[in-house]
Orotidine 5'-phosphate decarboxylase (Oceanithermus profundus), 263 residues
Amino acid sequence: MGLDFVSEVAARPPLVLGVDPRPAWHPGPEPLEHLERYALELMETLADGLAAVKFQYAFFEALGGAGWALLERLVAAARVLGLPVIHDAKRGDIGSTAEAYARATLARWPGSALTVNPYLGGDALEPFFEAAAASGGAVFVLVKTSNPGSADFQDLDAGGRPLYLRVAERVAAWAEAWPAEAEPWSRVGAVVGGTHPEALELLRAALPRSLFLVPGLGAQGAEPRPGAGLLWSASRSLFYPGGRPDLAAARRQAEAYRRALAG
């Protein structure tokens, strides 16, 4: 099968570099060129201390064709550096559309992972699970997101329990059905915001076989804490420490996060 996302990240430090490119923050007449050079240098600098690189698709899509081309080059560069890749696209649709999304990400980039939205139900996620199993990849299902407004729906009462715990029950069943080679982990993980530490603790117990992608580290105020299967993601605070591209500051911030996550 070649590259295997779960086996790779399970053996690496638990820090994820989030890449949310903002060309306006890059100086000079060719901001995209400067952005690309900076991203390449940063990935190379931090590679040994990362679990993965997470590319937030919205920021690339906003740049049109040039953004898509930049995304492809950076994903390819991450793989050359030996870094696992997470496509943060939050896909979720029915039938042939879900299959097309799966081909565009998991099948196109073997050994990578994709974030997905469970709102349409299990049949809409099945193509992603199948593609992950066939390509050595993984799927991270949104369960409890890091934004304050997540409570609007995710915390609604669902038979005496918050809805996010009901979603977790289904994710646990999917995790059992799609095991990975790296025991005890599954190819079906969960997105659980680090900004909700109580929910993080509940969900870690409810989803023993799922790796967690834990956003919110840094700019959103989440405090890093060590734990089995927790992949902590930092975007603005690590890619743009201090609100600007700064390799030296990013190295210092990554080291601080690694110390905190090592306990």
